[in-house]
Task: structure prediction
Amino acid sequence: MGRLVDRRAIRSASVVAAIVVGGAAALVTRATAQQNQNVNAVQMDVQQVSGNVYMVAGAEGNGNTTLFTGPEGVLVVDTQAAPLSGKILDVVRTLTDQPIRWIVNTHMHGDHVGGNEPLAKAGRTRAGGNVVGDIGQAATSTARIIAHENALNRLVMADPPVPPAALPTDTFFNEQRDMLFNGEAVQMFHQPKAHTDGDIIVLFRHADVLSTGDLFTTVMYPFIDEANGGTIDGYIKALNNIIAITVPSNVNEGGTMVIPGHGRLSDEQDVIEYRDMVTIVRDRIKEYVKRGMTIEQVKAKKPTLDFDARYGSDTGFWTTSKFIEVIYRQMAAANPPPKGTKPAPRKGNE
Ligand SMILES: [Zn+2]
Result:
């Protein structure tokens, strides 16, 4: 039934192209409703990735959103910036009449949690079991927001403060959280000290789709957010965990599809190439640190040169230079250079 409703909805949406990505047939639709003058220019690209899982890509610089629809309602992974919420809701409405029940935040950055409040308020908690009896009728008035405990702790301490209605309502602090929703298994795995210290990846087991948040992107070097607990070694571990979970695609059967935090829909091979790139750069800088080189000497060696055309940037909040510096600092801390050399000064984070 849910499937039938979804298909009808998709057909009625304005379908502009049908593309094949990594063996999975994907529909590209465009949400055309325009609610907010400021975001009129933004077009949400919607791809049906597999089963009832969709990838919603919005403005450049904003994270990707994953939607999972079904008879019980909608689960949303990452909510982009608040002004885009109307557009995300428009996309939801083209797919299903069911309310948003769950929001999952892969981590605490604003381009992934910005729409929490409006999307939660547009949704509803499923009033089953003891929920209403336990916490009253208000329990059914908004969708619930899942995140790792560390992400909530960072959001609570954020400056400027995050409004209470935007904060995660359901956190977990162990390695994993499993849930059954729309009759399908959804699994969340914490990846410690990677992009931040509160990153989770979200696996839709039946559809075979993995949402990685910013533990994988196709458009930039990994942002190691040191101020929020990120480390280069944890990031590489997370990429290896993603590769362990995903199954390769081949010509006849689509493998696991990977929805990155930013950039295009991917598969395991894309993650392998990215993991190899990050590992090579880390290992080069580690070697230079062991030789006692200064940060200036390391930069002069251009340890990212062969990857800069694709991932490098001299502008914006995450430059190639900052990427090299954070790896240098962390490698120097783990592998103290010989006496007589100075580690790079620690700089503030964006
Ligand atoms: Zn992020």
